[in-house]
Specification:
77% of the residues lie in helices and 2% in strands. By secondary structure, it is mainly alpha-helical. It has a two-stranded antiparallel sheet with strand order 1-2.
């Protein structure tokens, strides 16, 4: 069992090293990158099955006893996240085979991608708070390198905004880690959970909770700390944006849920109103920003922010059913957002622009693509029987059960505005006639690699819609485990 916890970190790390050593052999890099992503998905699925059967897995690296050594732990929530990470990785790597130019590949694209995956998986499995910080820094460094890879002016401008705000978040995170160690004498999160109630000054514990809320709130792009995201996510190639949209902000939300359920459950109850207000404002400002956009990638970037609000809603309600709703929703939104960004890349490939005003006519020549767009678009808006409907239904029910009618109303209104903005893309890009005249049927032929990537990402939306009941039971179990770590 111990090897199952280590594999999700070891596989992308070894893949990154091997692709780096094969920097001048493009075909070898591609083969290693694809194999590594597939291996990560397989390792994640195996870990999830093992945790479901045998309970929470814990391993002490180097056989150092807890709480002194490096601890890796896997419960159902982290295992689900590892599976989603592997799924996004495989889809993005396959799409990268036809979308990333040789220059970026020679500059270390595949190595950076797998180093990023190493950081993501390390953060998901970290059992002590300092190593959680280290893995977040691995993510930050590699994501900055990826977002600026190629050296375009827009990329550098977006990268500077991205790294500046995330460095601020890292500073808050490191300060909070130091204060936690000073107050409790521990870094292992399970050990901190046992000792933090003994801290004499309750105000210090609340201050720590708020400090971590700010740190991870920046990384998760919650209101009002989100403005770096739409300024940077639209600048790199679509494959990189799809990877970022699926994983990075979600790992920030994962860390918030992990820390508040394990270390600060009492404080989460006390600041419930604040968390719900942040959730509602994140939803509303994100979707209003999306409605105002005419560039597809910026529109979708604002929707990343809006959907984060639903995840914070589950944390703010802070009941097992609400947290289960957040876990269900995160399993829906990660592939949905990545799929929409990949489709935006296909649109750009065919018509050479992301500007909705300059697009049109794609339904006539690419009806299958138009249909595939509607799957993640309608799922994002919460239309049944797709996965997004059941994720939002779980959160709305939890809100009604706790009497939080304001956040429920906000969630319902934002769903309608999400549908409006998705129909805006449909009408402008697919339905209306092309402003430049008819599009030749041979223009912008879509590759088989794109279709394979898109199928990988749309399958979970259909699967979770058809089997919402069994998966939600798994999410309930995962939510209950959050209080036992």
């Amino acid at each position: 069992m111990h090897i199952l916890i280590v594999l999700p970190v070891l596989i992308p790390l070894l893949t990154a090293v091997l692709t780096l050593s094969s920097y001048n052999q493009r075909l070898v890099q591609r083969a290693l990158s694809t194999g590594g992503a597939a291996g990560l998905l397989g390792a994640g699925l195996t870990l999830l099955v093992s945790v479901q059967r045998h309970g929470i897995h814990v391993v002490q690296i180097g056989n150092w006893p807890a709480p002194f050594g490096i601890t890796l732990s896997a419960d159902l929530f982290s295992s689900i996240m590892i599976v989603l990470t592997g799924l996004i990785a495989l889809a993005v790597v396959i799409y990268s085979l036809v979308s990333i130019d040789p220059g970026r590949e020679r500059s270390g694209y595949h190595s950076l991608l797998h180093f990023l995956l190493t950081g993501v998986c390390g953060a998901l499995l970290a059992g002590d708070i300092f190593n959680l910080y280290v893995w977040f820094e691995v993510m930050l460094v590699t994501s900055f390198a990826l977002i600026t890879l190629g050296g375009d002016r827009s990329q550098l401008e977006g990268g500077i905004k991205y790294v500046t705000l995330n460095l601020m978040a890292s500073t808050f995170f490191l300060a909070g880690t130091g204060i936690v160690y000073g107050a409790t004498g521990a870094l292992n999160m399970a050990d901190i959970a046992n000792r933090i109630s003994q801290v004499k000054h309750s105000g210090l514990v609340m201050a720590l909770a708020l400090l971590f809320l700010i740190a991870f709130g920046i990384k998760a792009a919650i209101f009002p700390l989100f403005f770096w995201l739409p300024a940077s996510y639209h600048t790199p190639p679509v494959a990189i944006t799809a990877l970022f949209s699926g994983l990075l902000t979600k790992v920030g939300v994962y860390a918030l849920i992990r820390l508040f359920t394990l270390l600060f459950p009492g404080e989460a109850e006390q600041i419930r109103t604040l968390l719900l207000a942040i959730a509602g404002l994140t939803m509303i400002t994100g979707v209003l920003g999306a409605v105002a956009q005419t560039e597809i990638r910026r529109l979708l970037s604002f929707h990343i922010i809006s959907q984060i609000g639903y995840l914070i809603m589950g944390l703010g309600l802070f009941t097992p059913s609400a947290l289960a709703g957040s876990i269900f929703f995160i399993a829906h939104v990660i592939p949905a957002k990545a799929a929409l960004f990949l489709i935006s890349g296909a649109i750009h490939q065919m018509q050479g622009t992301y500007d909705l005003k300059k697009l049109g006519g794609l339904y006539r020549y690419h009806p299958v693509l138009a249909g595939m767009f509607m799957l993640p678009a309608l799922s994002l808006a919460g239309i049944p029987p797709l996965s997004g409907f059941f994720g939002k239904l779980a959160l709305v029910r939890a809100g009604l059960e706790t009497g939080q009618f304001g956040i429920v109303a906000a969630a319902m209104a934002v769903s309608l505005l999400t549908l409006f903005s998705m129909l805006k893309i449909w009408n402008e890009a697919f339905w209306k006639p092309s402003p430049s005249g008819d599009i030749p049927a041979s223009a912008g032929k879509i590759s088989a690699a794109f279709w394979l990537s898109l199928i990988l990402l749309t399958m979970p939306m259909i699967f979770l819609g058809l089997f919402a009941g069994p998966f939600f039971k798994l999410c309930i179990e995962a939510a209950k485990q959050l209080y036992q770590m």
